[in-house]
Amino acid sequence: MKSQSMNTRPLGLKVLAIAVGTLALAACGEEQATYTAADEARTKEMSMSGCAQMGGEEAVCECVFDKMKANLSKEDFSTWVKLTVAIDGATTVQEAVEKTGMSEAELRKANAQYAGEGARAGMECEAELAQ
Question: Which residue segment(s) compose the domain that 85 sits in?
Answer without folding.
Answer: 4-25+34-130
